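Hey everyone, long-time lurker, first post.

I ran two proteins through the pipeline my lab uses and got sequence/structure pairs for each. Pasting them in order. The first:
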Amino acid sequence: MNVKFEDVGRLPHPNDNVAIATRRLEAGTVITMGEKQFTLPDTVLQGHRFAVRDIPAGESLLSWAQPFGIATTDIHAGEYARNDGVIQELRHRQLDFAPPATANFTDQIAPFVFDEDKFCPSPPLPLYDDIKTFMGYWRSGSRGVGTRNTIVLLGTSALTGGFVRSLEAKLQPYVGQYP
């Protein structure tokens, strides 16, 4: 089967060397990406990554323009990007295809280092003109109203994960003050 890359994969950043499969891609699928074509030697599951260009052993795998692993073997365009965790997980699934048997990269994610000197918070959003209600509840007796104070730190992409973990660590000492 011949398919266009934009119909089956996403490249979060133009410099990435692996893409995210937007659907299951069968072994033997020929992908056309611009002027080049490559064939998938293995079935790639939706949400998993595959190489879009050759990655020599020792080179970083990039997604969102961030290195997340080091190739342990030469990885050719079209190959399923897989570490030991992926291999183990695939072994536990009841798949209708034979997955790759060995990993072709190891994890290597640089820890996030928060630089307070370079941090520049965004300006606060303007308040609503007409504030009348809030999500609260009536407390017993004459205690008035209350809210459930829940703070959620949510990273919305791979780029923000390290920042969220750093922020969580910085806020952890204050958790006991707000039961």
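...and the second, right after it:
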Amino acid sequence: MDPYVNMQIVNSIAKIEFYHPKSNSLPSEVLSNLALAITKAGENKKVKTILLTSAGDRVFCAGASFDELLAIKNQHQGKMFFSGFTEVIKAIKNAPKFVVTALQGKVIGGGLGIVSASDYVVASPEASAKLSELSIGLGPFVIGPVLKRKIGLAHFSNMALDPTNYKAAKWGLDTGLYSEINEQPKLRATEVCSCYAQYSPMAMTAMKKMFWEKHNTLEEDMDNKAAQSGKLVLTEFTRKTLKEFKSR
């Protein structure tokens, strides 16, 4: 099956689902379509809340596409690729509606940017999380500002400095990365969205703005970090490591 980003509106809920055959990894096209879908849902007056999910039942998101990382030839291409994560995070941040995300399984690397930008996250007991960037010669630079906002510097650095081990779902709940753990995260997230759809849109928009107060430079910070990542992805260490990972 080819990668996709689908959206359907049901009972005032914009249900957005993304898919990639390689563990729901995120190449540029999926990132762009995901940002566009979230933006359109935010602008649609018929939509009162947004539900974000991925296909399958084992992995929510494997992060950046290694195939596309290896295809990057210069710093401009590198910055443009990593800016794709920035655009998705900005779309979630700027949507005047709550974004509820359901995690059915593991989330890795850049996928944590989506999770940490979301307003409410329902995770399955199997939804462990890992920042793997350091192990391939990169760092969680682009998603760092939004992840630090969500769980604090201490927990963020703890994850970033442990790139080969997963944090259990319980850790995600305890640190505030996840809002709740449920055996059926997609069903529960739909229930949460249905509740939000009954509330005042003006109140929810005002609350959303409040959640992001004192983070006025976040988008600029992420743009700068995208350029930093775009340089690092071209280093010999990173190229070699990515090829080794792909050959396994």
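Reply from user beta_strand_b:
Welcome! Quick read of the second one: The chain has a mean pLDDT of 97. The chain has one domain: 4-196.
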